[in-house]
Amino acid sequence: MRRARTSDQGVQAAEPAVAVEDDEPKTRLSSVANAIRLIKTFSDTEYEIGISELSKRLRLPKSSVHRLASTLADSGMLEQNEETGKYRLGLVMFELGSLVRRKMDFSSTAKPELMSLREKTGETVHMTVMGATSVIYINTLESTKSIRMTLDVGMRKPAYCTAEGKVLLAFKSPDVAEAIIAFGLPERTPKTITDPVVFQKELASVRSRGYAIDDEECEVGLRCIAAPVRDHNGNVIAAISVAGPSQRLTKKLLESHAAEVVESAEVISKRLGYQPMSHRRVGGRL
Fold this sequence. Notes:
The chain has helices spanning about 25-40, 50-60, 60-75, 90-120, 165-170, 175-185, 195-210, 250-255, 260-270, and strands at about 5, 10-15, 80, 85-90, 125-130, 135-140, 155-160, 210-215, 220-230, 235-245.
């Protein structure tokens, strides 16, 4: 910003602008915000828009809009019509949207079976997917009992000490589990598995029996049992679980729900197109 000063001749002159150190980060944030605004300008009825129109709608100079559009086009998020010069959403946006749609689709597909599982067990039922080092809850149906486990959709918990996380890690590439171990296995309760060797053995046990448990390893007073959900290619893409207070959900009762959880996970997997070669027998003790 320029500040006016009066010269000896009485004529106002502008002083040089003073540089502000944090202008660059602010500019970057502003550019990201404008890029998001630009992408959201497109719609079903207006799938191709030119620079002039984008400039008018975004209330930005044409030069700025052109830079934004060129950058987004270089990344594949926009494409330019060579004949008209107008821009449209690119294939990268389609791919990202497809990822979101698939997660929404299988969550909706799973809901009837999750409701059935809640009725059978009387406890809270969850569906989760894997994040970087945590599990993300994408569906949750609370128990109707007064004392129950409560979690909001979108919440995260560490993967290494939850039943859902152990299921997801057990069936992923070994590199994923090794990265989790390298990140650390801090003790959350006296029952948390913090030894890397013991943790790897736990994942092997999960693969063998087809389900995982959380015996107050993440939170004192809470127990959980989970099983894997597979897509049409057989890849484990989610986990479903039954969780509740340990004073009601004893180890023996938790074990009795293993077959129900595994069966529900298999039903959901089949609805997603999975064709198992053979059914794994649920066995082993907690």
